[in-house]
Design a protein that fits this description.
heterodimer, A: 520 residues, alpha/beta, 15 helices, 23% strand, B: 430 residues, 8-stranded parallel sheet, 14 strands, 41% helix, elongated
Chain lengths: 520, 430
């Protein structure tokens, strides 16, 4: 362990050499870092230590944590399948409070506004710091420099990487399960709190020292299908409710009604077609944001017109993807998380709607992953710069408000398209330099705004394929200039101090950028 | 041109909109003071990015207007600079300020070239004149025209402020290829609208609720006076010094207006099109407005005939259900069959549907091209009679085919391999 100093990484950003006591590797460029050694493994367990009846139930979460030997400074993980409806994250930490634990590191796969009570637990010293995506109030807390340790933000794939290579050793994983049996087999696609896939908890179930499954829908053995294998589970706890179904999945996800965003979506769909990406057996991925959903809708129209079908689409699934599957426009949905009720129903009933995990989709330490096999992906960003670097974590005022999700991992697709409005509330999205580099421009191929589409000059093939297109393809600097004129000049730089509050990890575990305390 | 309102007595004026759903606007309350300089309480969604720029602009605009002592309360939701200027000026005028100098923002968009009298007017996108957030992207949807509306979409209290906003948008918003129209209020209130917007060189003025030719003559005269008062201003001439035409489109919205359609259409050289307002027409008739428009069938036929007779375009009303694109397409196609050349849009998504409805179907274009080709051959070979296969083609059919090809070309519908043929048409027509 050495003293923290700041060094400049290959993205030209200053990053701390030590984070929360751990030495860090600065970002070395895309694929520039080659880790070696063996993967991390959990301690040896034996079946003789577990009930032959297969019944691992204990009376409550507190007792389960006690039996796991919860003590000060441990790493406790939870998962965000239940999104803003999750009760289990806070329930777990509250049980830890009752056990008198201190200085825990909370390691959620993502946090949401519903996890705001964790702020109080940090104030009381129960939680030392958070390593995981921080959305909303927790992000603000971190931005204000109130967290004791540094926040560490990782992509979904990066979280798996950190668990596998031992960067993070989980002491206790607590898995919220919409359905489970007493042995610990667990499934996300059934039950009153059904959420679809449980992929985000898979790594924790395999690598954590102790694993607790918490469910509000206990079924007799066997729970089928099992997305989490009971063979990895220490204890099962039954509770009244693991979450608020209304906040877990929306009844239905809705396409944007903003004409600007619809225009962007339509042009992106046309680009995918005109660049020759939309060909028989192709694949694509789009999230559940307004523009991405509208893109799916427009692309589906073009596919129908041309009689083209996809081999697979990657979700975030919604009823728009389910419709594609049912109509035969795609053969499979490979689903990382499920955003609406139709998605949940489909993943439960349709064998071609397959739950995936960050291991199959995104993991750096896998022998390949699905993300690089996707032909086109449509993503968002808070800012991009003229070198095509993009930010999804902070706003232009420096506040940390969003996680990375699978965003970094998806950049490896054949054609990565950022679909963004050219300005938000007078604030231009294309900057000279992004506030935070979440993804290097090298991997970002297209920035599509309502005022023009910029193609990364590195992608001469794309530029060539689109040279006869009447899409508004323009240099990124030209779009930037137009928007700055419209908005009355360049915005003021973010009012931040030079004190780091969090770091952004690249998919390989190196540090790509630093988030600083805001000055307010 | 100062607007005197009741608020003048207290020396307080407000302008702009605020609230949870408001975006890209600026609400301001300005209270004139005897002394103490400028006191500004600013709340802005974009404070971290443009707080300093907003403060500097407020200072500059007030200085130009000659306001030296005032208290301002400002709530900004990301207004662009031309919006900020319009709101500040409107509040100052409402507070009773006589502007010391012209505070209009610098033109950031050069005055576009004048539009021809006859051009495609399939779609005209309505932009409520007091809602700036819709302005910036309007041109991106490629409507044939945009209408900055000062009439029915603007609350009576907001009209003076909307007028300044529309004025500024004609200086600072790039509406791309769209013809730039302004719908003014009825006279006499509309006179102030004309004074504000004409110097900025709009392409066309929509005059609402026209019932008699005299009303048009009155507008015409007012325009002459305003243009006469401009010394080579942007309303008068373009960069080459040529006189810049200003067109009129009267809106007929009553039984009387429909009866007088022909006289109205001929009341001014500036009139390029007539249009109809179906909501008000149905109200005037005392019958409900229906989806298939049975109550306005006569009026629409009467108006299109009058327009044709007067040599101006006939343009249809709007279709109110923005979610029913199939209904819109049916309406538009029927409208085209009647002789209308376009209609209004209240949402950008209607534009493409309307364009599809008002363009000649491919089969018609194909047939027209064949007829024109036959006509060209007959001319070249000195035949008086045009024939296509075994059929003789009557002169009116040839005339219509020429018109269809002309229209298809204007709309960019002819594929490139047809361009040569279309070019040869010019020789034929000469």
């Amino acid at each position: 362990m050495s003293a923290a100093t700041m060094v400049k990484n290959a993205a030209g950003r200053l990053i701390p050499t030590v984070v929360n006591g751990q030495d860090q590797v600065p970002f070395q460029g895309v694929d520039g870092y080659e880790p070696t050694g063996s993967k991390q493994a959990p301690p040896i367990r034996s079946c003789r230590d577990y009930p032959a009846s297969g019944d691992k139930r204990v009376e409550n979460l507190e007792e389960a944590l006690r039996r796991c030997g919860l003590s000060d400074g441990m790493v406790v993980s939870t998962h965000h399948h239940l999104r803003n409806g999750d009760f289990v994250g806070v329930m777990t930490l509250e049980a830890a409070v009752r056990l008198g634990a201190k200085d825990l590191m909370w390691f959620p796969s993502a946090s949401f506004p519903c996890h705001e009570p964790v702020i109080e637990m940090m104030e009381r010293g129960v939680v030392h710091h958070i390593e995981g995506s921080m959305n909303g109030p927790l992000g603000e807390y971190c931005s204000d420099g109130k967290m004791r340790g540094l926040g560490v933000l990782r992509s979904h794939g990066g979280r798996w990487q950190a668990i596998q290579d031992g960067e993070v050793e989980i002491d206790v994983a607590v898995i919220a399960a919409p359905t489970a049996d007493p042995f610990g087999n667990a499934d996300g696609s059934h039950g009153p709190s059904a959420c679809g896939s449980l992929g985000f908890a898979l790594a924790d179930s395999i690598y954590a020292r102790h694993v607790i499954v918490v469910t509000d829908n206990l079924v007799p053995f066997p729970c089928v299908p099992w997305q989490i294998q009971g063979n990895n589970v220490d204890f099962v706890v039954e509770v009244d409710r693991i979450g608020d179904p209304e906040q877990i999945v929306s009844g239905t996800t809705v396409i944007t009604r903003s004409p600007e965003r619809q225009l962007i979506a339509e042009q992106v769909a046309r680009l995918v077609k005109e660049a020759g990406i939309m060909r028989p057996g192709f694949s694509f991925q789009a999230g559940a944001g307004g523009i991405a959903l509208a893109f799916v809708d427009y692309l589906a129209r073009l596919m129908r017109e041309e009689g083209v079908t996809a081999r697979f689409v990657r979700g975030g699934s919604t009823h728009y993807l389910v419709d594609l599957l049912q109509e035969g426009l795609t053969e499979y949905i490979l689903d990382g998380q499920t955003f609406d009720l139709d998605g949940v129903r489909s993943i439960a009933e349709d064998p071609c709607h397959v739950a995936t995990s960050p291991f199959t989709s995104y993991n750096f330490h896998g022998k390949g992953n699905f993300a690089s096999m996707v032909d086109a992906v449509v993503l968002g960003a808070t800012e991009v710069d003229v070198d095509f670097n993009a930010n999804v974590n902070t706003h232009s005022d420096g506040l940390l408000l969003h996680g990375i999700g699978g965003w970094q991992n998806c950049l490896y697709s054949g054609c990565t398209i950022l679909a963004v409005p050219s300005f938000r509330d007078r604030n231009p999205v294309i900057r000279d330099e992004v506030t935070t580099v979440t993804g290097p421009g090298e991997l970002i191929d297209v920035v599509a705004t309502e005022r023009g589409i910029a193609i990364n000059p590195r992608r001469r093939d794309l530029l060539g394929a689109l040279q006869n297109s009447d899409l508004p393809i323009r240099p990124i600097e030209e779009i930037q200039h137009e928007v700055e004129q419209l908005c009355g000049g360049k915005p003021q730089p973010a009012p931040v101090t030079d004190r780091p509050v969090a770091v952004i990890k690249w998919v390989d575990g190196t540090v790509i950028d630093t988030v600083y305390q805001v000055d307010r | 041109m100062s607007v005197i309102t009741k608020a003048t007595e207290s020396g307080i004026g407000t302008a702009g909109r605020r609230g949870e759903e408001i975006r890209s606007d600026l609400w301001v309350q300005l209270e004139l003071k005897e002394a103490g300089g400028i006191e500004l309480a600013l709340g802005s969604r974009v404070e971290p990015y443009f707080g300093e720029a907003i403060r500097a602009q407020v200072k500059e605009v007030l200085n130009t207007l000659g306001v030296t002592d005032a208290r301002l309360e400002v709530e900004d939701t990301g207004a662009l600079p031309f919006v900020i200027e319009a709101r500040l000026e409107a509040a100052a005028l409402a507070a009773g300020v006589e502007p010391a100098a012209d505070a209009r923002p610098e033109r950031t968009i050069p005055l576009p070239p004048a539009q021809p009298r006859q051009r495609p007017r399939r779609s005209r996108l309505y932009l409520p004149g007091n809602e700036p957030k819709f302005f910036m992207s309007a041109g991106l949807y490629e409507p044939d025209a945009i209408i900055l509306d000062l009439e029915d979409s603007v609350h009576v209290d907001a009209k003076p402020a909307a007028r300044l906003l529309v004025r500024n948008s004609l200086r600072c918003v790039d509406f791309k290829q769209a013809e730039r129209m302004v719908r003014i209020n009825q006279l006499p209130f509309g006179l102030e609208d004309l004074s504000a917007v004409i110097p900025e060189g709009p392409d066309m003025i929509l005059v609402p609720k026209v019932e008699t030719a005299d009303q048009i003559r009155e507008v015409d005269k007012a325009i002459d006076e305003i243009l006469g008062g401009l010394k080579g201003g942007s309303g008068r001439s373009d960069d080459s010094g040529a006189v810049r035409p200003l067109r009129l489109m009267p809106i007929l919205e009553s039984a009387l207006g429909i009866e007088n359609a022909f006289e109205i259409a001929r009341a001014s050289e500036r009139i390029a099109a007539l249009t109809i307002g179906l909501e008000d027409y149905a109200a005037d008739m005392g019958v409900p407005k229906t989806a298939d428009g049975v109550e306005s069938a006569y009026a629409r036929k009467r108006m299109v005939n009058a327009a044709r007779a007067a040599g101006v375009q006939a343009i249809d009303s709007v279709y109110g259900d923005v979610d029913d694109l199939d209904g819109l397409l049916r309406w538009g196609r029927r409208s085209r069959q009647l002789g209308y050349e376009g209609m209004g849009c209240i949402h950008p998504r209607q534009i493409r549907v309307i364009h599809a409805a008002f363009q000649p179907p491919p089969t018609q274009v194909e047939k027209a091209l064949q007829i024109v080709e036959a006509y060209r051959l007959a001319e070249a070979e000195g035949h008086g009679v045009v024939s296509l296969g075994s059929k003789m083609i009557d002169p009116p059919v040839v005339k219509q085919a020429l018109a269809t090809v002309e229209q298809a070309r204007a709309l960019g519908l002819l594929p490139s391999d047809r361009r040569d043929e279309a070019n040869r048409l010019d020789e034929v027509e000469q």
